Amino acid sequence: GQNIDQPTEMTATEGAIVQINCTYQTSGFNGLFWYQQHAGEAPTFLSYNVLDGLEEKGRFSSFLSRSKGYSYLLLKELQMKDSASYLCALGPGAGSYQLTFGKGTKLSVIP
Amino acid sequence: DSGVTQTPKHLITATGQRVTLRCSPRSGDLSVYWYQQSLDQGLQFLIQYYNGEERAKGNILERFSAQQFPDLHSELNLSSLELGDSALYFCASSVAPGVGETQYFGPGTRLLVL
C-alpha cells in the first residue's frame, strides 16, 4: 500500500518563503506530483518529479528524495492568492494508473 | 480552465435516491478518472476508464458505477444514496494512463444528500 503524510495547516507571511513537506511510504511509484487546490475548486497541476533533485518553475520549486521517502514544495515571494491547499500525490506504480493523494496542507498567507 | 467539464455543478437530493454525474474530458484525452473528496478523507480515487474500457478500480462502493461512452465522455452513477455520500466528486482526464501522465481536473460536482 501507500501512505502519505503532510502537515495539516501552515501559515506564512506575504512575500516570505514557505516549504511544505511530504513524506511517504510506498512499495513503488514512478513519480511524485504536487497540486494546488483553492477551497471548493478543482486541483490544478503544479509540478512532477520523477528523478531525485530540485525542479524549479517560477516561484514554485519541488524536490524529491526517493531514498528518504521525502518531497517538498517551496513557494517563494508568497502572494495572498497562494492561500490554498497543496496536495502531494504519488504517481502510478507497477500495475496501477491512479494517483494516490495525501490529505493536503492548507496554507494561509497573511499580510 | 483545465478543459475538463463536469455537470451539474451542484446537486441536492434525498437519501435512497439515484443521481448521474457527467464528465467530458479535454480534447484528445482518452483516459478519465473519478475521485471523491470529503472533508475528512481527502481525494479518493474511485475508478478509471481508458478509451471506453475500465482500467482500474479504487475505493468505489458497489452502489456506484461508471462508464465511458464512445465519444469519451463519462458518467458516474450513484444509487441508494446515503448521507455519507455527500462530497465533491471530481473527474480528471489525461492523454493516456501512462507513467508521468498529468491528470487535469474538472471543476467538480458538489453532491449534498439530505
Description:
The complex is a heterodimer of chains A (111) and B (114). In chain A, β6 and β7 form a beta hairpin. Chain A is 0% helix and 56% strand. Chain A is globular and about 40 Å long. In chain A, strands 2, 4, 5, 9, 10 and 11 form a six-stranded mixed sheet that branches. In chain A, strands 1-3-8-7-6 form a five-stranded antiparallel sheet, with no helix packed on it. The N and C termini of chain A lie far apart (41 Å). By secondary structure, chain A is mainly β. Chain B has 114 residues and is mostly beta strands. Helices cover 0% and strands 53% of the residues of chain B. Chain B has no helices and eleven strands. The termini of chain B are far apart. The mean pLDDT of chain B is 93. At the A-B interface, β5 and β10 of A face β5 and β10 of B.
Question: Approximately how much helix is present in the residues of chain B?
Answer: under 10%
Order of helices and strands of chain A: EEEEEEEEEEE
**Quaternary form:** heterodimer
Number of strands of chain B: 11
CA-atom Rg of chain A in angstroms: 13 Å
The structural class of chain A is: mainly beta
Hey, roughly how much beta strand do the residues of chain A contain? over 45%
Give the overall shape of chain B.
globular
SSE series of chain B: EEEEEEEEEEE
Helices of chain B, by number, come to: 0
Which stretches of chain B of 5+ consecutive residues score pLDDT under 50? none
Mean pLDDT of chain A: 92
Number of helices of chain A: 0
Largest interface: A-B, 25 and 28 residues
Shape designation of chain A: globular
User: Which structural class is indicated by helix and strand composition of chain B?
Assistant: mainly beta
Main pleated sheet of chain B: 7 strands, mixed
Task: Determine the strand fraction of chain B and express it as a percent band.
Answer: over 45%
In the predicted model, the low-confidence regions of chain A spanning at least 5 consecutive residues are none
